[in-house]
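Standup notes
- DV: blocked on the single-chain target, sequence here:
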Amino acid sequence: MKNYLNFETDIKNLENELEKLKDPFNQEGLTEVDTKKISKTQEEIDEKLRNIYENLDPWQITLVARHEDRPKSKFFIDNLFEDFIPLEGDRYYGEDKSVISGFAKFKGQSVLVIGQEKGENLEARIERNFGMMRPEGYRKTIRLMELADRFNIPIISFIDTPGAYPGVGAEERGQAEAIAKSIECCMKLKVPTLAIVIGEGGSGGAIALASSNKVLMLENAIYSVISPEGCATILWRDPKKMLDAAKAMKLSAKDLLELNIIDEIIPEPLGGAHRDRDIILENIRNSISQNLDFFKTLTSEEILNHRKDKFLKIGRSKGFVSSPESLSAIQTSGLDFKEIIKSKKNIAIAVATIVIIAALTLFIL
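- DV (later): unblocked, structure below
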């Protein structure tokens, strides 16, 4: 049974009609297939899909990214790679089922594959914690990324999470520290790293694995610092303002490419990735192949610098700040950062001294 979004009612009606036309023996009085009517109905469906999906607003894109039938990381891992060997555990606490990771072959080349997995059905979603990683998940991926780096093996990550798990246990085990360490690990790697946002790319839970040389996004995926509902609740105290929030957040692949947050948009079949899994598989396969080939000519240091420069340049192309070629170029701006830091340090000491004196005065009184 197909699942339809709230703006796909016309498509649902047409596809139900098409199913009846293809199976006339279930209809009283019909004994043969009307091929002309079938062809016409299919054309109407394609036209409706084209009109809808070429004009999706940011909130509708969010709904497509969360679609129940959208292909998940496990599907891509099973169908894009050969000889996948899953590896589990962080060697500190335990295993996190919300992330699948292990070594595999891609067109004969060894790769480390990491995939945030939401699950295909209710039972799997509960087991996978709806794709929300815990600290042990991030520490597991850190362990494997460091291993891949040691053996010069490229890393491919599939991003699909509403965010890191915010539970009490996760916080007690150091969720924020685990995310920070994962970002630090990603930035230090000397092997090519690719991150592909296939559904939701939610906040620190996503960036912890997406600090890569190349960040790719499926056409109808989203990537943001918070969910539209969360943003609306914080800014307007009204989660129903999620349409306005989604528009303001610039979370679509098209917007993020214009802002140089991502590097490439991978096209989806008409109507979304869930409508033709063979096409989306082929598109992702071609993109991975092209990007891995690009890094084959670069040295380890060049790969490392490529990643650092990529993140240092984010936001600069739109004139928000100057655009130095690398971190060292900041020194040419004419500012003495050592003096600024020294000055700020003195101010901080003075403020701290005033606070301490005030506290002592109150205590004495």
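- Follow-up: Confidence is low (pLDDT under 50) at residues 319-335.
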